[in-house]
Amino acid sequence: MCRDESAHTTIHHQQDIRTGGRYLVEVRNPAKGETYWGQGVYREVKPPEKIVFTWSWTKETPQGPHLHADSPETDVTVEFFARGNSTEIVLRHETFGSAKDRDEHNQGWNGCFDILAKVLQTTSKHN
User: Fold this and answer.
1) How does pLDDT run along the chain (127 residues), one tens digit per residue?
2) What is the pLDDT of residue 59?
3) Is the alpha carbon torsion for 100, 103, 105, 111 positive or negative?
4) Cβ distance 44 to 50 under 8 Å?
5) Hey, what's the torsion of the CAs at 76, 82, 85, 90, to 10 degrees?
6) Cα separation of 66 and 85, whole Å?
7) Any bridge partners for residue 22, and if so which?
8) pTM higher than 0.70, yes or no?
9) Measured at the alpha carbon of residue 34, what is the angle toward residues 28 and 39, in degrees to the nearest 5?
10) Which of 44, 52, 57, 117 has the greatest CB tally within 10 Å of its CB?
């Protein structure tokens, strides 16, 4: 999950973006000295309209037990809608085990969208 581009580094170890494909990501937080591992399966990949995938923190990592080993698998749907010269992105992340998990993921997704906005702003200045 994205949070703050200066605080987190994401490494994609596996990224097979197709229906039935899997992904495995490592998220490092140097400020806290923590590493998180997320994984899931792409349930539906329908370019350019929709991506549906599962998200779960891995139970075991190369470094041993994971920090979020008790978090359940959740479901993420991302839809893209053409709006003239823009694209509207609608993200739904659901089936959390607790309000705390939901709120932490909400913070992470908001960080991702903040980073995307910065990238798009920088890109549009150069065009």
Assistant:
1) 554 545 778 888 899 999 999 999 888 888 888 788 888 999 999 999 999 999 988 755 555 555 555 678 899 999 999 999 899 999 999 998 889 888 988 988 998 898 888 888 887 776 6
2) 58
3) negative
4) yes
5) -30
6) 42
7) 41
8) yes
9) 60
10) 57
Q: At residue 87, what is the residue type?
A: T
Place of tokens 């490592």: 26
Q: Would you state the structure tokens that stand for residue 40, as one six-digit string?
A: 């899931």
Tokens for 108, please give them: 């992470």
> Tokens representing 88?
């509207």
